[in-house]
Amino acid sequence: MEKLVALLRDEERKLAGRLTGLRSAIHALSENSSNSNANRGNKLRGKKLSAAHRAAIKAGIARAKKAQAKT
Predict the structure, then answer these.
(1) CA 46, 52, 53: angle at the middle one, nearest 5?
(2) What is the pLDDT, as a whole number, of residue 14?
(3) Whether the Cβ atoms of residue 39 and residue 31 lie closer than 8 Å to each other
(4) pLDDT tens, the chain, 71 aa long
(5) CB neighbours of residue 22 within 10 Å
(6) Residues 6+ apart with CB under 8 A from 39
(7) How many whole angstroms separate alpha carbon 31 and alpha carbon 40?
(8) How far, in Å, CA of 2 to CA of 52, rounded?
(9) Which helix (H) or strand (E) holds 20?
(10) Using CA atoms, how far apart are residues 6 and 18, in angstroms rounded to an integer?
C-alpha cells in the first residue's frame, strides 16, 4: 500500500510540473502586446514591499530623473 501511495505522489509531482508549464505557455500566448513588458517577471505582485525596498525604488527613480535631466 505504501508503494502505491509513493507512486501516486510521484505522479502528482509530475502532473503539477506539467500544469505549471501549461499555465506559463497559456500566459505567454494570451498576453497583449501592450502589456507584455509590464508583466514580465513581476514576482512581487500582490505582496507588500518593505520600507527599505520602497526607499530603494524611490532612490532609483530619483537617480533616473536626475540622469535624464542632464541629457
Answers:
(1) 40
(2) 92
(3) yes
(4) 999 999 999 999 999 999 999 998 888 888 754 455 555 566 667 788 899 999 999 999 999 999 888 87
(5) 10
(6) 31
(7) 10
(8) 48
(9) helix 2-30
(10) 19
